[in-house]
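Protocol step 4 of 5: obtain the predicted structure for the target chain.
Materials: sequence only (see below). No template structures provided, no constraints applied. The aim of this step is simply to have a reference model before the mutagenesis design in step 5. Sequence pasted as it appears in the construct record:
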Amino acid sequence: MEDPNKHLKEFEVVCSSMTPINVDGNILKMKAFPFSLMDKAKDWLYELAPGTITSWESMKKAFLEKFFPTSRVVLLRKKISGIQQGPGESFPGYYERFNTLVASCPQH
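Step 4 output (structure tokens):
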């Protein structure tokens, strides 16, 4: 139920804060990622065919394809493109709402 992009961002921040010197951070992420997942996301990961995921980048791509489908990207892009300042809404409030939408759709 969590935002998949936000999950990945927070996961990468946590991993980067605990990566020992001279250790490949991508290997750490690959090993730790299963522990960050729950329920359907963990089931999805364990149901992947062996050899499907070969790098951290391929893991992120597969995860987003499953839990952040193209239809959701299209919907968010429409919201971003059509955003309008509401009546009585301050500019800082509007700008914050805009930035929240943009952050929820890194592909934009």
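Step 4 remarks: The two ends are 21 Å apart (CA to CA). The mean pLDDT is 89.
Proceed to step 5.
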